[in-house]
Fold:
Amino acid sequence: MNFLSLPERTSGNRTYGLTSVIDFGTPLGELKNILSDYGELIDIAKIGIGSAYVAPNLKEKVNLYKEYHIKPYCGGTLFEKCYYQNKIPEYLSYLRNIGIEWLEISNGTLDIPIQERLQLISQIKNDFHIIGEVGSKDSNSEMPVSEWKEEIKLLLEAGCDYVITEGRDSGTSGIYEKCGNIRSNLIHELCKDLDCKQIIFEAPSSKHQMFFIKEIGPNVNLGNVKLQDVLVLESQRCGLRSETFFLEDHHTCTLP
Structure:
């Protein structure tokens, strides 16, 4: 029975308000238990770093995620490894064979020029859903705001379903400073000129997640969420934690 007035959440096959988890090798049996309780709170699952290539029972895991209408994909590091070794055609075949329909094109480790990424997107966007990524894993690399905006805009125009803002699973690079503080001015600038419904902000900790919920609203897209944190995150989105307690029912900020 629902009796509280809470912020309105998107539901079902969401296109925004997404929770994208990161799976660093959750055993299949454990994952079954997690999804049986919390599967409806998860929209996307990233099989972290390049772990998919050496993971046991990968096809079974992919199928399990899909049973719960969760979109699985491999971390961008695996894409970059294949790009570095000129194995992109083999990588695409590999994804098809294990039933993965989403693909991340990143440049977190390698510096892949934006034009090369755009060309790749144009070649494969009819066969896969594409998630682009902007920002580097190098905490010493700091892109100007104008470059962030331009790359996100170009990636979306090229056919990406979503663009991720790099933050690492540690929250220490990309949209974060080395110390873990959020580059709030960058976030405000991105939300001013871009459609936040198509941006997934990497937010690995509750502190990071609550910043985005308070600034953008309960239906902000969040990535790199730990599997064990999905219920806490949903509680935060619904104003059921002290830090988000006074979240307005219809607070959407820059989300139209």
